[in-house]
Records
---
Amino acid sequence: MKQMRKGDLKLVQELNRSMILNKIRGSGPISRISLAKECSISPSTVASAVQELIKEGYVSELGAGKSSGGRKPILLQFAPDNHFIIAVAITNSSIELAELNLEAHIKRKCLKPVKGETGEEVIQLMTEELDLFMQDCRDLERCAGIAVTVPGVVNVEKGIVYYNSKLRLDHVPLKEIIERRYGLRTWIENDANAAVLAERRFGNCGEYPDLIYIVVGDGVGAGILVNDNVLRGSSGGAGEFGHTSVSRSGIRCECGNVGCLENAVSWSAVYSRIVAGITSGRPTVLSELCRGNFSEIRPSLYKEAIRLGDALSMDINEEVAEHLSAGIVNLLNLFNPGAIIMDGSLAYDNPVLLERIREHVQRRGMRILKDGIPIKPSSFGTDGNLIGGAAVVLSQIFRFSLAES
Ligand SMILES: [Zn+2]
């Protein structure tokens, strides 16, 4: 047998430790002896790893369990509240910050609207908000890491935001900026990629290793999980669903293409259609809901109008459903996912939209790919990006296997 090098040994120790911690998380309270059996690791290795995990505060002793004769074994349990994660979710309209525990439960959060800031102004706004938020954190030594999620093309390894057309972010070394400022390990991830990890790890789609998470809001994007791995592509740009073509003509998009899905279904496209409908004299309950102040119409009011059966809003919703369904059938044919999750300000809490999409997909999809495919709302609603940020940190620091729970 080849002699093990020092680096290999350290990796084996780390993997053993992750496996033990994952097992305590998923199957605890559990005794050391059961851990050794279930992980197929020697009792002495388990004992030293557990001692380390207790000392660092990731695991605690619960008391005695059932004995099969002799002294009752001490049980171990995961201690999720001794450490915390900071998640920052940048969207095209807001910056949200949260402190979460190691089970991705949000302990506190705050939101700052982005009002036209672009480029460096966005980064400055984010660091100012982060400074304020971190002031209220207990002991930063207990911070397991910071995750920033952002729409657009992200190089995860380098922690650089390559491109976001709406916020005008171009090659921003976000990981370096934050690590230098706070001295804490930081990860940058595309928002939809983080959210698909959250669904698989903590949401209602734990059974699907092939999963697509679609965001429809200010922008349109997708996180694509293929055999439990986030599909990134060669430059981190995979999943730019909003910039796939659903028409060979149409207005030119900021990305350079024409006929992009985003320009047919994003909130600004929907809002333009609402305003055009009102201007052409169509009656709509939206006029009452916004009390005549059309600039106050937000996705929440539009979804309320759909719930009330407003004809103008229903017509627009139907157009959105048709365009999105064309795109979703393309995704089914390319990736054959086990489930589709719909999120974003236009799709979340919009059951009429989801029902119409299901019907269109059933009509247009290839039988073997569409039969029985769930098209579901997200598990976390507006918190998906924050929980996604925590999922990114957890999968990195503990090497949590997505397949295990
Ligand atoms: Zn485009």
---
Amino acid sequence: MFKAELLERAARARSSACTGDGDGARNLASCPSLVLNADYTPLSYYPLSLWPWQTAIKAIFLDRVVVIETYDREVHSPSLDMKIPSVIALKQYVRPSEFPAFTRFNLFLRDRFSCQYCGDPHHLTFDHVVPRRVGGRTTWENIATACAPCNMKKGGRTPRQAGMHLYAQPIRPTHWQLQQHGKLFPPNYLHETWRDWLYWDIELEA
Ligand SMILES: [Zn+2]
């Protein structure tokens, strides 16, 4: 993702969400807080770890998070005025499990939401690489993301029998690998105060 595009996105986000003007209640509802782990990296990139601002404020009072950045908007109650947090960090580090759960979402994320036979990102399904009828199991190592046409074409055959090639042999990914893949999917909404925390380690273009 190019920096210019990020900046443009941020500018769009600035004008569309959590600003002081327009429909107050609706804008307030769209002021999520980006949640960082205690090491100041996002808890999750994709889906991006976001909490509603109410949850964030509750966590502040429970002394579970520190506020890193705020929106310009304030919330008022009889006892306090407070700027809405836009970035918060957990005080206690949450250690991610080394191996993520075997879910549809994580499987697609491992395969970067693209067919492992042709690269198409549309009409994604799951393919048993070794077909079930010959004993292929439903495991990380035997399921690949495939578009519907490729899945249909392959039918109940192995890739070799079908003359089809996998981009990569399916593996059980680590949490770190999925996080890396998650970085490839920037959120639609990107507040300016989130940028430093999401993309500080992105490689700069020469
Ligand atoms: Zn395909």
---
Amino acid sequence: RCTSNLKYSLCWKSSKTQKICWFCNNAKVAVLGASGGIGQPLSLLLKNSPLVGELSLFDIAHTPGVAADLSHIETRAHVTGYMGPDQLNAALKGCDVVVIPAGVPRKPGMTRDDLFNTNATIVATLADAVARNCPEAMICIIANPVNSTIPITSEVMKKYGVYNPNRVFGVTTLDIVRANAFVAELKGLDPARVNVPVIGGHAGKTIIPLISQATPKVEFPADQLSALTARIQDAGTEVVKAKAGAGSATLSMAYAGARFTFSVLDAMNGKEGVVECAYVRSEETECKYFSTPLLLGKHGIEKNLGLGKLSAFEENLVADAIGELKGSIKKGEDFVANMK
Ligand SMILES: NC(=O)c1ccc[n+]([C@@H]2O[C@H](COP(=O)([O-])OP(=O)(O)OC[C@H]3O[C@@H](n4cnc5c(N)ncnc54)[C@H](O)[C@@H]3O)[C@@H](O)[C@H]2O)c1
């Protein structure tokens, strides 16, 4: 991909363990659902990154405007807008990473599963296009219900014989971001230095923060730990309520989606030791899909780092989540099996 022929000689990040040529950081990234509440700020953050060479923005509405607007920013990512089903194939050709925030968000009183009927079809249609146009791309799904949209994406890729479980991610990063922010607030720490793994899935009680594994180490009395865990699990609903019908988390999700995409790109570029939690095909529990910390590499998941040592409280949370997760996974798989 290097157009400079200089390879590493002008590398801006060179070190003994990490060699990345600025000219080689030329990834083509697509955002599907780019005109939405998440899509627009996410595209802005991607446009602002030196890791992105080409930014391909697809939506069923408004992408010419969003792309024209972003293209005036003085960063080097080349932005192109694609609108409507006729332009979907063109949007995806040659993409290295595809991020999918397309789909309807929650309104007050709705669960993420209430979005299934609308978003399952949208995600299946988009996954079908990815399978046909850029089957080797890293696929990062933001559209809810994530617990079902990842099985849907995987089954669609299988239909084309191009499924690679190391490259299909359910983006749960917002749960980690929230856990870091809330723990830092309670303990008076710098949130940039806090890391709380969050495992399981991305809905209600399937969101399992592992406070016992937080760094730096933090301790809470039992009642405070329960309240903190519940707040992390319900944080999305906190935003849905505060927005009072105007949608769900968009700005914090754009931040989290960008963080995850940059980690995937960094790892693809050869950076070592990149770890993110994400909801992926997994052998770590009896659920086919489960989120745990993952070591990322050039080809996606390099190693699943597993659940680690859980406290008794966290073991109960995992046991409590399994039933719901299995149901959501089956619902996604059945949807694809019954698709015409
Ligand atoms: N993973 C997470 O942590 C997380 C967090 C917040 C929201 N979400 C989910 O992200 C999704 C998007 O949320 P939002 O607030 O941006 O919604 P939004 O309604 O503001 O934007 C959705 C965008 O998707 C587009 N779209 C619809 N159908 C499409 C299709 N077939 N192809 C391409 N684009 C299409 C719409 O035109 C719109 O621009 C929702 O499903 C929401 O539940 C996930």
